[in-house]
Amino acid sequence: MDAYEAIISKRDVRHYSDSEISDESLRRVLQAGRMAGSAKNLELNRLIVVRDQGVQDAIAEAGDFSSWIGTAQVVVGFASPAAGLRSFDIGRQAQNMMLAAHAEGIASCPVTLHHPDKAREAVGLPAEWEMPMAITLGWPVRDVPDSPLKRDRLSIDELVRHDRWS
Question: According to the model, what pLDDT value does residue 75 have?
């Protein structure tokens, strides 16, 4: 699978099997996150790899739409100093990791953590750190019904404007 194919075929998945992710595959996914660019090359973010069910369940309490995340084999939290929070860098790391996982056959989904105090407590972050998002990783379950939110993507002509809005 080339990079373009990986990008256009990757889908967010929220249903996972019980099969474990190998340490080697997980390391490749984490390495992809490590290689993402960083504003001013500061590399402020840290990744928290969570396999423990109790910690995953606590992280699920930190999001408004995250009750399903405890079904994943791995949850990776993105932690950053609150004073230096760079959401764009977190997004770049997450996308790299989800694409690397996809290339390995591993499904993934990003999760917004709406309640910073609950996220901080779930993983024991210091007070000056935040964990605004996580991704879930797991082997996909086959034959899952389509989401009721599934729709066709905007056409390229509808999405893109050239030079000016109109």
Answer: 98
To the nearest 10°, report the CA torsion of 103, 55, 149, 137: 10
Exposure string of 62-93, with b = 16+ CB inside 10 Å and e = fewer, is bbeebeebbbbbbbbbbbbbeeebbeebbebb
Domains defined for the chain, CATH in brackets: 3-142 (3.40.109.10)
CA–CA dist 116, 29 (Å, integer): 25
Rounded to two decimals, what is the model's pTM?
A: 0.92
Query: What would the pLDDT profile of 71-88 be if each residue is shown by its tens digit?
Result: 999 999 999 999 988 899
Q: Are 105 and 132 in contact (CB under 8 A)?
A: no
Query: Residue 124 and residue 59: Cα distance in Å, rounded?
Result: 11
Burial 110-144 (b: 16+ CB within 10 A, else e): bbebeeeebbbebbebeeebbbbbbbbbbbbeeee
Question: How many angstroms separate the CA atoms of 163 and 166, rounded?
Answer: 9
Q: Which helix (H) or strand (E) holds 92?
A: helix 87-104
Token pair 């699978």 in the structure block, residue = 1
